Amino acid sequence: PPTGVPTPAYAAFGLLLVAVAACGREEPAVSRALHELERMAFVPPGTCTLPGYSPPHNEFGVDRPLLVDLYETTVGDWRHYFGESGRAPGTGEDPSPDSWPACFNQLEAEELALRRGVRLPTASEWLYCAIGPRAHPYPWGSRFQTSVANTLELALQRPAAVGTFEGGRGPFGCYDQLGNVWEWVADRVPGRTDSATVPGMRGASSVLGGSFLYRAMPTFGLPGDAAVLQADFNALSLARETRASDVGARFAADAEDYFWRMAGEWGSDAQARRRLTAVGERFGPDARALLEELAAREGAPDALGWLAEGAGR
């Protein structure tokens, strides 16, 4: 220590300098694959039955463990996979903020999914993720609430950054399954017979969830007096080539395949371990058995064990 400075005081000053230096030091960036895993929800197999409707269009669910994006695909996601074009298709801004949902047609959604190693969810999977096993008509519950979704009532008149509406999260933690932008699914909503096809276009598919240009609607409508009616969903049928400033997507993947295929890209250092155990803890006990089985396979990366460790906490 310098002359006249007590040793304990000098030591404390040194610790302060170390702390300040640590605060100013940026943590190393994680891999893109780990970043995407951290933005996914784990959905265990399950079904929901819509009250008051008759089979076969009253039941929806997930028949094997599923991963689904917590957020709608963003402009930043689009630029990562397709380059710095300055404008993601259909957003209406040049350039659009990276945190906004990207807007594209279904063919472009499928190309992006291919590059990411994921897929569009089926209509049944999307609906289950939005309403859960209890079949609540809104993602957040049984009653309509204001200011928890970017719909026409909010009068924002544009997309909002994904993840803005914490109070509007669904039963598995997904944001914006009501409002912000419509979301493409892989097929038609069951029971839909209307068609948006026009000459030269390759069929029609469904978008679900509404957007900032539409009034808030429940995910499914409550039936009238006749219990034989098909459920009326908050959905549209669109030609696959349709591109609009309020139509985007979120993606999904079969959990077992995705875990095994991507685990080697999540990282193998202490930071990756810490973050993976946090993800596993969020996935919770529903994911534990699958993760432990995968971690026990011959040649399994350590990352799977770290996820399983977190799921078991």
Structure description:
There is one protein chain. With 313 residues, this protein is of the alpha+beta class. Helix content is 29%, strand content 11%. It contains nine helices and nine strands. Strands 7-6-5-8 form a four-stranded mixed beta sheet, with helices on one face. The protein has a three-stranded antiparallel beta sheet with strand order 1-4-9. Strands 2-3 form a two-stranded antiparallel sheet.
Strand percentage lies at: 5-15%
What percentage of residues falls in helices of 4 or more residues? 25-40%
Apparent shape: globular
Low-confidence parts? 1-26, 193-201
Task: Give the count of helical stretches.
Answer: 9
Find the structural class using helix and strand composition.
alpha+beta
Largest sheet: 4 strands, mixed
Count all strands and give the number.
9
Read across the widest sheet, the strand sequence of neighbours is 7-6-5-8
Radius of gyration: 23 Å
Average pLDDT rating: 86
Query: N-to-C terminal Cα separation, in Å?
Result: 45 Å
Order of helices and strands: HHEEEEHHHEEEEEHHHH
State the assembly state of the protein chains. single chain
